[in-house]
């Protein structure tokens, strides 16, 4: 009786206690120590708690070496030690993921034209090149289920370069346990480049489990993936892009999660293969959650402390996937209806599948121990149909899945409101039949941390309109300059009595405490940016991380830049705007915004030593 009680207790407390230990170890959670000290008390009951915690910690540590899960399934080390050793000995161009030393001749435009990345460099690197094992060190000791489902790896492509496509295939074959690869399916979306025809078929004939499918006309990425998935024979479908490199032991960690819960969609961590020199490295920020803003641009947000794991190499939940790299149980993918067949060409499909899996009883995770490199192109080398299909796709996703939240998109993209999304009855029926939850549920249970970074309703701005300098009477002007070009002083448009189309003199000091061109309803995604206490002030892509784009508009009318502890200054003679040591009595450091919201400004300045 006692034992039964114990196990019951063990199961239901497991999560809570791990959470507590996780927090206490990583951030010294005071509640936990309070809890522990209580548990140390003399009475029998609290001693029981204490022993339970110790047991938990001990079992956590032990689990690393224990070949069994709690449910009695055997686990094993899936690393291919021999292949890892062979890789480590490789030397040559691009080996170990090192940048290829480019000459000027290789840097020419021609190298990028057909692929969007430097194909000359790609051609000089071995198809079997080695990659650095940049996984979290804990990944080296992880065991996964001995019995894993096998997978079809679907690789759609359109006019892909020869060496980049082949390196994708080679990396999968070289770094996957052969018994887990049911097949690799290359799906050609109507390419016209010669090397992708007979030459590719002849080459792939040496690999019995590589198949080539071809569309009969240009179908676009979404339908090409669907064609591959519909022909797949594996238990799991793994989608990859056609210019990827799979890293050490990438596959077992993905399949393991699906084996444990077939409704989990898993994504590898996507590393960056440089489009110039093919060096291999992590993305900025590495492990982050997938998110979106309310114009439906894909975004990444930090993992909140509540979701951080004791072991940072453990899988974590992600609200939306980045796009083309994920694995899903084949039957579950079709139960979810695959992709909405009404989606055209490209775009929005990652939201559709992500919302669908979360809202309809599944889940989605990123797997830090599974890493796949991807070449982020310099530009897309072929014609992508214009915005219409993307807008239509996004509207379909919003109409079918986002309920009342679709309104937030239409407010920012009024042109979507009356755009036809086509017939969505089948999609709505599917949502009904699968008994899917509401988007409100998704926002409150899954993406609850998103509004902090991308609020559906934009909080009020602190100041906006022209920014007039007190000393010179001139205004800040972008002159429609390119990104990175410095801001200038210019005679104020308002004073000229005529329209001045070549000027941009309206700015918003936004709720993010950055300054952007545009009025509060229509800000651009460029921000005032300074890199030192004496640098010019330029416009740069807003990174949303405060830092060198954080400004204070102080009561003395100075624009203070906390990172460099300096103030925005200007000189009338050369009309330059630059950072300088603060001197609040200098009129050239005083700026007047046309409009201010004193409540918001006071809130911003409250925590500041003025
Ligand atoms: Mn790609």
TrEMBL record:
The protein's name in its UniProt record: Polypeptide N-acetylgalactosaminyltransferase
Secretion signal, residue range per the UniProt entry: 1-18
Annotated Ricin B lectin domain residues: 464-594
Annotated keywords: Disulfide bond, Glycoprotein, Glycosyltransferase, Golgi apparatus, Lectin, Manganese, Membrane, Metal-binding, Signal, Signal-anchor, Transferase, Transmembrane, Transmembrane helix
Source organism: Anser cygnoides (Swan goose)
Keyword field contains Transmembrane helix: yes
Domain of life the protein comes from: Eukaryota
Molecular functions per Gene Ontology: carbohydrate binding; metal ion binding; polypeptide N-acetylgalactosaminyltransferase activity
